[in-house]
Fold each of these.
Amino acid sequence: MRTAWKILWMSAASIVALGVLAFAALWLVNLHDEPLGEQARAMRQPPAHRLPDEQNLYLAFMGAHAPAGVVPTIAGAARVAAVNRELERLALDPDPHFSPPDDDPAAVAFEGKVPVCGRIDDACWRDAPGQATALAALLAANREPVARYRALWTLPGYEDTSVPDLMLSGGATIPAFGDEARKWVIADLAVRLRSSPPAGQADALRDLMADLAMWRRVLAGSGNLIASMVALARVHADEQLLALAMADPSVPFERMPGIEPAPLFEDGDWHIGGALRGEFRGSVPMWNRFRNPANADWVATEDGESRWHRAWRSLGNRMAMHFVLPTATENLYARVYARFIAAADGPPRGLPASLEDSMPWARAQASPGLARSAYNPMGRILVSIALPAIEGYPLRSWDVAAHQRMVRLAWEIRRQRIADDAIPGFMAAHPEWSTHPVDGARFAWDAHARTLSLRPLGRDSGTVPFSIPVWQPAVRAAR
C-alpha cells in the first residue's frame, strides 16, 4: 500500500513539474517581441487630408448639432480636436477612462419623430402624401437641422480627421449622420415626387440626386468602416426611393431634361479597402497600450475590494499581458488585413474566390499549430476573434452596387418603353444592367408582380429590400 501511495505521489509530482516546466518554457518563449514589420508600418500611415475644414463632410456631420448660429464644420473641427487631445492623453495614461467633450446644452436637435418612410418601400410611397401636414409641422419646429442636412449636399468630400482608436473612443468620433433630419428630407422628397406639379417633381428629383451624390462622396472618402456601411445603406435607400418614383407613371421623368436619374458609380467607389485600412489604424492604439508597462499593473477598482484581492487581479493582468506580444500581434493583424484589403479592392468577379481562400489562410496564420502557437498565444486569439467580422463587408458593398444596376435596368425599361414580353430578352442583351457584378447572376423578373429582384451575397444584406417595382404605362395600368 505504501508503495502504491509513493508511486501516486511521484506521478503527481512529475505532472506538476512538467506543468511548471511547460509554463516556464512558454514564459521564456514570450519574453521577446518582434520588430514592427514594413507591412504594418505602411498600413499605419493615414491618408493625406486635402480638404479645408469648411469643405469636409465629416466635420459637418460632427458639428451637425452645434448651437444655432455656429457653423457646423467649425463646431465639428473643435469637437474632433478635443477628442483627439483626450485620446493622445490616454496613450500615455494607464487609466483608460475616456472623457468625451460634454454636449452643449444649446445644441440643435431634431424635435419629434418622422411618421413615414422609416423604411423605403411601397408603404412609404403610398402613405407619404397623407403625412404632408405632419411633415410641414415638423419642418416648422426643425428648420435648422433640416437646412443643415441639405447644406451637406454642397460639400465636396469626406475625410475623417479623428485619431483612430476603436477601443476607447466609442461613438465620440462617429458622426450622427443626420438620422432624423434625413428621414424628414426623404419623406418630403417622396411627397414632392408624388404630389407636386411637374416643376416641383423635377426639383425633388434634383434634390434626391444631390443626396445620392453626397453619400457617394462619403462612400468614396477616407472614413472608417462604420461610415462606409452607413453610406451604403443611404445609397441603397436613395436608389430604392428612385425606383419607386420610376415605377409610377404619374412622375413625368420624360419631361425632366438634363437630369440623369439612374447614374452608375465607378467600380472604385464600391471598394472598401480604405475603410478596412482605417479599422487597422484604429487597432494600433490598443497594441500601444500593451507596450506601456504601466498598463500591466493597472486594474479598475471594485467597490469593497481588499488590497490583496486587487493585488491578485493585478498579478493576473500582468501574466495575461505577458502572452500578448503587441508588435507580433500588430504584424499578424497587418498580414491578415492586407489579404482582405487586396480582396476587397480587387475585381468583383474574383471576390468570392479571394474570400474563400483568405479566411482559411487567415485562420492558419492565427492558429498555426500547437508549437508555433506557443509564441504570442493571447495575441493570436485576439486576431482570431476579429476574423469573422472582416469577411462579410466587401460582399455587402457589391450587393448595393447590384441594386444600383437593377435600378438602372428599371429606368432603361421605362426610358426605352420595353414591352413586358421583351423584358427577358432585353435583360439578356444588357448584362451590364441585369446581373450581379460579383457572380454574374441575372436578376429575376416577375411578370405577374411586375418586380425585379436579386439575391444578395453578403451575410448581413438580407434585412433590406432587394426588390423593386417596374414601370407600367398609365393606359395599360388602367385596364
Note: Residues 2-29 form the longest helix (28 residues).
Amino acid sequence: MGLNRTPTAVLDARGSKSLKYGLDRSAEPTCDQPLGPPSPWLSKEVKAVWRSVAKNLMPGVASYSDRDAFEMLVRLTYKMRTNFDKMRGAEMGQLVSLFSRFAMTPADRSKVSVSKPKTSAISKYLTPRAPRPVAPPPCQCEDGSDGDCTTHGPVAQDLSVN
C-alpha cells in the first residue's frame, strides 16, 4: 500500500510541487470557493469548534469541496475536546490522519513555506513613497562665512535630489 497522495495546495505551499518527478496535475479539478461557514445541521457546540479549527487552517489548504472531510475533522476534534476518555483508537488515528491531510500537525507545518504575495507592476507606482528629508535652508548671516556660522552652527547641505 502506497503513501497518501499529498494535495496540490500543500505541495504549492511547500514549494515542492516542481520537485516531484513526473508530477503533472494540470488537469486536477480545483475549487475557487472558500471553506465557508459551518453547516446548518451542526450543533451550536460543533459550530464553535468548526470556527476554532478553521482559524488554525493554513490559507489555501481547504476549500468548499473539502467541507465533508473538514466536518469529520471538526466532529472528531469536538469528541476529543469533550469526551477524550471514550475515544477509540481508530478515531484517534483518523483524527491524526485528518490533521495531517489539512497540514495541521507540526511535521506538516514544517514542510510548508508561505511566500510573500506577488506585487503587480503598477503597485509600485500606486504605493506612496516615504517623504524625503528636508534640509534647513543655508545660513544667511552677513558675516560672509561660507562654512560654519558662529551664530547658527554648520551650514546644512542640500539633501534633495532633483
Note: The radius of gyration is 29 Å.
